[in-house]
Amino acid sequence: MAFALELVGERWVPLILRELMFGPRRFSELRRGLPAISANVLTQRLESLEANGVLLRRRLPPPASAQVYELTEWGYESEAALAALGRWAVRSPLHDPRLPLSGASLMMSFRTMIDPARAAGIDAEIGFRIGPDPFAAHLGNGALEVTRAPATAPAFAMSTDEARNIAAAVYAGEPLARLEAAGLVRVEGDRALAARFVTLFPLPAKVA
After folding, report:
1. Residue 44: C-alpha distances to residues 11, 34, 37, 51 (Å)
2. Which residues of the chain register pLDDT less than 70?
3. Inter-axis angle of helices 163-171 and 103-113, nearest 10
4. Torsion over CA of 26, 27, 32 and 36, rounded to 10 degrees?
C-alpha cells in the first residue's frame, strides 16, 4: 500500500489518472479538466507517471500531429483502486457534492456508483456531451462502459455545459424536466430511459 501511494499518491496524480481514464489527452485538455493545477506541477506529475510506467507520451498521426498522454495497460488498472477510494470517501459527512466536476469525473462516478440490480435488464447505448467533450457509453449487464468519443446511435443523449448539472439530476434528485426548462441540460431520444438512468446511482449512507 505504501509503495502504491509512492506511485500515485502525490497531490493531483489521482485526478490526472481520472482525466486519462477514458482515452488520451493533450496537455491543454488536461489543464482544462484540472483548472486549479499549474502548468509546472502538471508537467512534473506527468513526467513522474511516465517514468514509473503508468502513462506514456505519443504523437497522434497527421493531420492532428499533436502530443498526447495516455495510460498504459497497467495504468488503466488503477481505476479499481480509485473507484474504491471514491466510494469510501463519499460516505464522509465532509464530502461536498456541490464542487465542480469534469466530464471524466462524472463518468467515473457513474462507473463507481452504478447499482447493478437497478440497472438489470437495460442494454443501451447512451451519448453524453459535457462542454466540448463527447462520451459514448454502453449500459449492459449492470455495468457502464465509457469511451471518450461521440456516440453513434444512442438510445438517448444528454448534453450540458457543466457536468454538475447532470450530477444534480443523478445525485441530488433534481428533476430532469426542471433542469431542461432552465436550459442547464438537454435530453434527446428515449426520455423514459433517461429518467430511469438517473436513478441507477444511489449514494451510500453517510457515516455517523
Report:
1. 11, 14, 11, 11
2. none
3. 20
4. 160
